[in-house]
Amino acid sequence: MVADDRGSVIVDAGQSPAHARQIQAAIRDTGLPPARRLVYTHHHWDHVWGACAWPEVEVIGHVAGRELLEAEAARPWSHRYLRDEVRANPRLGPSFRARALAMEGWEDFAVVPPHTTFTDELTLPGGVRLRHVGGGHAPDSTVVLVPDSGVALLGDCFYPPPFHLRGPDDGLDVAMLHDLLDDDYQWYVDSHGEPTTLTQARHLLSG
Protein backbone atom coordinates (compact mmCIF):
# COMPACT_ATOMS: atom_id res chain seq x y z
CA MET A 1 0.00 0.00 0.00
CA VAL A 2 0.96 3.62 -0.51
CA ALA A 3 0.05 5.43 2.71
CA ASP A 4 -1.50 8.88 2.32
CA ASP A 5 -3.31 10.91 4.98
CA ARG A 6 -5.99 11.69 2.38
CA GLY A 7 -6.67 7.97 1.93
CA SER A 8 -4.20 5.20 1.10
CA VAL A 9 -3.80 3.30 -2.17
CA ILE A 10 -3.83 -0.49 -2.03
CA VAL A 11 -1.88 -2.17 -4.83
CA ASP A 12 -3.69 -5.42 -5.65
CA ALA A 13 -6.49 -6.86 -3.57
CA GLY A 14 -5.13 -10.06 -2.09
CA GLN A 15 -5.78 -13.55 -3.41
CA SER A 16 -9.00 -14.10 -1.47
CA PRO A 17 -11.38 -12.27 0.85
CA ALA A 18 -9.62 -13.90 3.82
CA HIS A 19 -6.26 -12.63 2.55
CA ALA A 20 -7.71 -9.14 2.12
CA ARG A 21 -9.02 -9.19 5.69
CA GLN A 22 -5.53 -10.03 6.95
CA ILE A 23 -4.22 -6.98 5.09
CA GLN A 24 -6.98 -4.82 6.56
CA ALA A 25 -6.17 -6.02 10.07
CA ALA A 26 -2.50 -5.16 9.55
CA ILE A 27 -3.46 -1.67 8.38
CA ARG A 28 -5.59 -1.14 11.50
CA ASP A 29 -2.94 -2.58 13.82
CA THR A 30 -0.22 -0.29 12.48
CA GLY A 31 -2.44 2.81 12.46
CA LEU A 32 -1.97 3.47 8.75
CA PRO A 33 -4.56 5.59 6.93
CA PRO A 34 -7.53 3.55 5.67
CA ALA A 35 -7.71 2.54 2.04
CA ARG A 36 -9.50 4.83 -0.38
CA ARG A 37 -8.39 3.35 -3.71
CA LEU A 38 -7.45 -0.15 -4.88
CA VAL A 39 -5.31 -0.53 -8.00
CA TYR A 40 -5.08 -3.76 -9.99
CA THR A 41 -1.67 -4.43 -11.54
CA HIS A 42 -3.51 -6.94 -13.76
CA HIS A 43 -6.58 -9.16 -13.77
CA HIS A 44 -5.17 -12.50 -12.59
CA TRP A 45 -7.00 -14.14 -9.70
CA ASP A 46 -4.21 -13.90 -7.12
CA HIS A 47 -4.24 -10.12 -7.53
CA VAL A 48 -7.99 -9.45 -7.60
CA TRP A 49 -9.96 -12.12 -5.74
CA GLY A 50 -9.77 -10.20 -2.46
CA ALA A 51 -11.46 -7.11 -3.91
CA CYS A 52 -14.95 -8.05 -2.72
CA ALA A 53 -13.66 -7.57 0.84
CA TRP A 54 -12.98 -3.87 0.06
CA PRO A 55 -16.60 -2.73 -0.62
CA GLU A 56 -16.09 0.97 0.14
CA VAL A 57 -12.95 1.38 -1.99
CA GLU A 58 -12.71 2.66 -5.56
CA VAL A 59 -11.21 -0.10 -7.74
CA ILE A 60 -8.98 1.11 -10.60
CA GLY A 61 -7.56 -0.93 -13.46
CA HIS A 62 -6.56 -0.82 -17.08
CA VAL A 63 -9.39 -0.84 -19.60
CA ALA A 64 -8.19 -4.15 -21.08
CA GLY A 65 -8.84 -5.85 -17.76
CA ARG A 66 -12.46 -4.77 -17.36
CA GLU A 67 -13.91 -7.08 -20.03
CA LEU A 68 -11.72 -9.96 -18.84
CA LEU A 69 -12.91 -9.54 -15.26
CA GLU A 70 -16.54 -9.15 -16.32
CA ALA A 71 -16.21 -12.57 -17.98
CA GLU A 72 -14.54 -13.97 -14.85
CA ALA A 73 -17.32 -12.54 -12.69
CA ALA A 74 -19.90 -14.51 -14.70
CA ARG A 75 -18.31 -17.89 -13.98
CA PRO A 76 -19.99 -20.13 -11.36
CA TRP A 77 -17.00 -20.25 -9.01
CA SER A 78 -17.01 -23.11 -6.52
CA HIS A 79 -14.71 -25.96 -5.57
CA ARG A 80 -16.73 -28.27 -7.80
CA TYR A 81 -16.43 -25.88 -10.74
CA LEU A 82 -12.65 -25.71 -10.24
CA ARG A 83 -12.39 -29.52 -10.24
CA ASP A 84 -14.53 -29.81 -13.35
CA GLU A 85 -12.44 -27.24 -15.21
CA VAL A 86 -9.20 -29.05 -14.35
CA ARG A 87 -10.64 -32.33 -15.56
CA ALA A 88 -11.53 -30.66 -18.86
CA ASN A 89 -8.13 -28.94 -19.17
CA PRO A 90 -5.38 -30.40 -16.95
CA ARG A 91 -3.05 -27.49 -17.74
CA LEU A 92 -5.28 -25.37 -15.51
CA GLY A 93 -4.29 -27.56 -12.56
CA PRO A 94 -1.62 -25.35 -10.90
CA SER A 95 -3.76 -22.22 -11.02
CA PHE A 96 -7.11 -23.76 -10.17
CA ARG A 97 -5.79 -25.92 -7.33
CA ALA A 98 -4.15 -22.83 -5.82
CA ARG A 99 -7.50 -21.02 -6.04
CA ALA A 100 -9.22 -23.89 -4.24
CA LEU A 101 -6.65 -23.75 -1.42
CA ALA A 102 -7.01 -19.96 -1.10
CA MET A 103 -10.80 -19.97 -0.75
CA GLU A 104 -12.43 -20.99 2.52
CA GLY A 105 -15.93 -20.56 1.07
CA TRP A 106 -17.88 -18.89 -1.70
CA GLU A 107 -20.93 -17.38 0.01
CA ASP A 108 -19.86 -13.73 -0.14
CA PHE A 109 -17.37 -14.02 -2.98
CA ALA A 110 -17.57 -11.99 -6.18
CA VAL A 111 -15.04 -11.01 -8.82
CA VAL A 112 -14.96 -7.20 -8.95
CA PRO A 113 -14.19 -5.52 -12.30
CA PRO A 114 -12.59 -2.07 -11.99
CA HIS A 115 -14.94 0.83 -11.31
CA THR A 116 -12.54 3.26 -12.97
CA THR A 117 -10.39 2.46 -16.00
CA PHE A 118 -7.61 4.16 -17.92
CA THR A 119 -5.79 3.54 -21.19
CA ASP A 120 -2.16 4.70 -21.14
CA GLU A 121 -1.43 6.55 -17.88
CA LEU A 122 -3.30 7.86 -14.87
CA THR A 123 -2.04 9.98 -11.98
CA LEU A 124 -3.96 9.57 -8.73
CA PRO A 125 -4.46 12.27 -6.10
CA GLY A 126 -1.26 12.28 -4.06
CA GLY A 127 0.94 11.68 -7.11
CA VAL A 128 0.88 7.90 -7.54
CA ARG A 129 1.24 7.17 -11.26
CA LEU A 130 -0.25 4.19 -13.10
CA ARG A 131 1.33 3.23 -16.43
CA HIS A 132 0.09 0.50 -18.73
CA VAL A 133 2.88 -1.74 -20.06
CA GLY A 134 1.00 -4.84 -21.28
CA GLY A 135 3.24 -7.74 -22.24
CA GLY A 136 3.01 -11.50 -22.45
CA HIS A 137 1.94 -12.16 -18.88
CA ALA A 138 -1.29 -10.16 -19.10
CA PRO A 139 -2.60 -7.60 -21.62
CA ASP A 140 -3.62 -5.20 -18.85
CA SER A 141 -0.33 -5.26 -16.91
CA THR A 142 0.22 -1.96 -15.13
CA VAL A 143 3.15 -0.60 -13.15
CA VAL A 144 2.51 1.61 -10.13
CA LEU A 145 5.06 4.38 -9.70
CA VAL A 146 5.53 6.30 -6.43
CA PRO A 147 7.75 9.25 -7.43
CA ASP A 148 8.24 10.81 -4.01
CA SER A 149 9.50 7.48 -2.63
CA GLY A 150 11.45 6.37 -5.70
CA VAL A 151 9.56 3.06 -5.76
CA ALA A 152 8.26 1.17 -8.81
CA LEU A 153 5.73 -1.61 -8.15
CA LEU A 154 5.86 -3.91 -11.17
CA GLY A 155 3.20 -6.53 -10.52
CA ASP A 156 3.96 -9.53 -12.75
CA CYS A 157 4.46 -7.50 -15.92
CA PHE A 158 7.76 -9.06 -17.07
CA TYR A 159 6.82 -12.64 -16.13
CA PRO A 160 6.06 -15.29 -18.77
CA PRO A 161 2.41 -16.09 -19.53
CA PRO A 162 0.46 -18.22 -17.03
CA PHE A 163 1.27 -21.93 -17.19
CA HIS A 164 -1.83 -22.96 -19.15
CA LEU A 165 -1.02 -20.36 -21.85
CA ARG A 166 2.77 -20.71 -21.83
CA GLY A 167 4.69 -21.97 -24.84
CA PRO A 168 8.11 -23.66 -24.81
CA ASP A 169 9.91 -20.44 -25.77
CA ASP A 170 8.18 -18.16 -23.27
CA GLY A 171 10.31 -16.72 -20.48
CA LEU A 172 10.95 -13.51 -18.60
CA ASP A 173 10.54 -10.36 -20.68
CA VAL A 174 14.04 -9.05 -20.11
CA ALA A 175 13.65 -6.27 -22.69
CA MET A 176 10.62 -4.91 -20.81
CA LEU A 177 12.52 -5.01 -17.54
CA HIS A 178 15.40 -3.09 -19.12
CA ASP A 179 12.94 -0.45 -20.32
CA LEU A 180 11.35 -0.10 -16.88
CA LEU A 181 14.59 0.80 -15.11
CA ASP A 182 14.76 4.54 -14.53
CA ASP A 183 17.19 6.70 -12.55
CA ASP A 184 14.19 8.33 -10.84
CA TYR A 185 13.26 5.05 -9.15
CA GLN A 186 15.68 3.35 -6.79
CA TRP A 187 13.49 0.41 -5.71
CA TYR A 188 11.74 -2.19 -7.91
CA VAL A 189 9.19 -4.54 -6.39
CA ASP A 190 7.54 -7.34 -8.35
CA SER A 191 4.67 -9.32 -6.88
CA HIS A 192 6.40 -12.59 -6.11
CA GLY A 193 10.03 -11.67 -5.43
CA GLU A 194 12.20 -9.66 -3.08
CA PRO A 195 12.53 -5.88 -3.55
CA THR A 196 15.50 -4.98 -5.75
CA THR A 197 17.49 -1.77 -5.93
CA LEU A 198 18.19 -0.09 -9.25
CA THR A 199 21.87 -1.02 -8.93
CA GLN A 200 21.05 -4.66 -8.20
CA ALA A 201 18.59 -4.84 -11.11
CA ARG A 202 21.11 -3.42 -13.56
CA HIS A 203 23.78 -5.82 -12.31
CA LEU A 204 21.46 -8.80 -12.74
CA LEU A 205 20.47 -7.75 -16.23
CA SER A 206 24.07 -7.18 -17.31
CA GLY A 207 25.10 -10.62 -16.10
UniProtKB/TrEMBL annotation:
**What PANTHER family does this protein's entry cite?**
ACYL-COENZYME A THIOESTERASE MBLAC2, METALLO-BETA-LACTAMASE DOMAIN-CONTAINING
Q: What is this protein called?
A: MBL fold metallo-hydrolase
InterPro entries recorded: Metallo-B-lactamas, NDM-1-like, RibonucZ/Hydroxyglut_hydro
Question: Pfam families in the record, alphabetically?
Answer: Lactamase_B
Q: Where is the Metallo-beta-lactamase domain?
A: 1-192
For this protein, the record's SMART domains field holds: Lactamase_B
Residue stretches in coiled coil: none
